Amino acid sequence: MNAVRQGDDHAAIDGALATLGTLFANAGYAPVTTPHLFEADTLIDLYGEDIRGRAFLFPGAGGGNELCLRPDFTVPVVRAHGANGWDRAARYGYQGPVFRRQPPGATRPMEYLQSGIENLGDPDAATADAQVFALTLQGLGDLGAGPLAITTGDLSIAFALLDALAMPAHRRHQLRRHFWRPQRFHQLIAQAVAGPTAPTPLRARLIAAADDPTAIAAIAAQAGEPLGLREIDEIAARTSALANAATQPPMPAEQAELIESALSINGPAGSALARLRALTHAGGTDITPALDRFEARLTALDHAGIDAANLPFDAAFGRKLEYYEGFVFEITAQGRPDLPPLSGGGRYDAMTRRLGATRAIPAVGAMIRPEAVLAMREGPQ
Amino acid sequence: MTLTLGLPSKGRLQSDTIDWFAARGIEIARTGDSRQYAAQARGIDGLDVVMLSAGEIPRELAQGRIHLGVTGADLIREHIPGWQTCVHLATGLGFGQADLIVAVPAFWVDVETMADLDEVAETFRARHGHGLRIATKYPNLTRAFFQLKGVADYRLVDSQGATEAGPMNQSCEAIADITTSGGTLRANNLKILTDGLILQSQATLCVSRAAEWGDGERATLASLATKLNQPLT
């Protein structure tokens, strides 16, 4: 729980919010507000049931739609943008409390302030990424935060690799789908390398009947009465997919190794880029466009006055939340593991489509937690 | 010093619990008429017995309002977030066994495992416009299990009774529910997924870590442990 704030804290927090608000407004990010409370459907569709462990959801009155206390600003800000038309560029700045469930016993606050920006519709991704990152660093600097520990990543590189490697469509689809669940992802790779396992007797019968809808229907009818929304033709369609998957060749060990090696790259961004170019070249794979975009971002960051080649880069960073899918970063207080991240952000073009845009529009944003920055300045308790 | 023991206030769980203590030399008898919720324990000093609904016992243990309680391990794990910090599942009593499982329509012959369920979830959404709905009264355990198994793209729907009829009524596609013999599942044309066992539960004597534990309370607990011939800490 948050303690009651005393007068000095209030002044310090108001001061920090004013500093960031002015910085962002001067950079062209128009201040917007969003409701604290909104219908939870969007969030559940976006994040799945796991969101319930992270956000506060509760039933609406009289059995109405479930409601949610906003766990961040990005979803409501982007939705409000879309309500007035997706196909336009806009920059928004926001400030206010967000609400997160914490695991039992955790000391992190369940309500805290965010001050952040969203940059929508800018077709020059490298420059927009660099600008958002540079502005965030400047905000932290203006608040007196330091020393900082920075982690960056770029999830589009892993997706480009999965797209470029030769593999059955079903396998590619599964790996893409479970990229966000690293444990399951590694399990899928291990299974793909090991090759198909012996089917259960039921599965063997089903696969033998794959081309014969009548036979599939007979097997299903023998197992039980049809019930529920899922119909027999859906079972037949999946049976075809299963028969197909059963004939897939195993994943070559070199391919699995290439995926795992690429995902385990961790070091200064400049040498990570070189390593990714060398690794994919040696593996006979071409993800040049994705790596060129990475390089363009590093150049844009240089132009923004940041030593881009030495930014810490972790190829697997950002896999925990199904949200970002390109550039991603987090900034923490060095030597203060007791504090939450001071800032985080990244690119989320694909999410705009899931929020209603007819195509993915360019979108990148970041937020700063002023209370965490003030706690850093005060020193360990 | 006096320890408070919370027992289920009615039904088979209550009578089995009383029998279990009796077999170990502790007689529990209700005081007054059977509608009152107080009882006495004979055969040991310093043990107060209160009758509570089985569903209340986890919370009372977690808050430390009772030192000991008998309830299903499933209820502790479902209803007390971070239960390990405040409740110790001291000993299973050997009755009230129940499995919390994931079951789907038996005619889904293409679905045998949780991984199958995950693959089906995606095509189901494309066809029907929403993710698979899983009915349960154990949302916390179910969500943790689905996460562990890497299943994405589903919705939990609350079901407080007759859960196994949900798929038939088209209010859900699959269920996560308690079963003892599987008979009700079969009668409703459902089958358990081969790796769909979420947890095995039984009536359990629990010790609250949140209650007041002075030297006197610990001494009484030690003599109870001796009497029951069970380690309780």
Describe the structure.
- The complex is a heterodimer of chains A (381) and B (233).
- Chain A is α+β, with helices and mostly antiparallel strands.
- Among the domains of chain A are: 1-34 and 70-147 and 336-349 and 356-381, Bira Bifunctional Protein, Domain 2 (BirA Bifunctional Protein, domain 2); 164-246, no CATH class.
- Chain A has helices at 7-26, 41-47, 74-83, 125-142, 155-164, 169-177, 182-194, 201-208, 213-223, 232-246, 253-263, 269-282, 288-303, 349-354, 370-378, and strands at residues 30-31, 37-39, 57-58, 67-69, 90-99, 111-120, 148-154, 266-268, 312-314, 327-333, 343-347, 363-368.
- In chain A, the strands form three sheets. Chain A has a seven-stranded mixed β-sheet, with helices on both faces.
- In chain A, a hairpin with an 8-residue loop joins strand 3 (57-58) and strand 4.
- The two termini of chain A are 16 Å apart.
- Chain B has 233 residues and is of the alpha/beta class.
- Chain B folds into two domains: 3-97 and 202-228, D-Maltodextrin-Binding Protein, domain 2; 98-201, 3-Layer(aba) Sandwich (D-Maltodextrin-Binding Protein, domain 2).
- Chain B is 30% helix and 32% strand.
- In chain B, strands 2-3-4-1-5-12-6 form a seven-stranded mixed β-sheet.
- In chain B, a hairpin with a 7-residue loop joins strand 2 (27-30) and strand 3 (38-42).
- Chain B starts with a strand and ends in a 5-residue tail after the last helix.
The overall number of domains of chain B is: 2
Beta-strand percentage range of chain A: 15-25%
Question: Could you say what the CATH topology of the largest domain in chain B is called?
Answer: D-Maltodextrin-Binding Protein, domain 2
Number of strands of chain A: 12
CATH architecture name of the largest domain in chain B? 3-Layer(aba) Sandwich
Kindly report the spatial arrangement of strands forming the biggest sheet of chain B: 2-3-4-1-5-12-6
Order of helices and strands of chain B: EHEEEHEHEEHEHEEHEEH
Radius of gyration of chain A: 24 Å
The CATH topology of the domain at 1-34 and 70-147 and 336-349 and 356-381 in chain A corresponds to BirA Bifunctional Protein, domain 2
The residue fraction in helices of chain A comes out at 40-55%
CATH class call of the largest domain in chain B: Alpha Beta
Number of strands of chain B: 12
| Broad CATH class of the domain at 1-34 and 70-147 and 336-349 and 356-381 in chain A | Alpha Beta
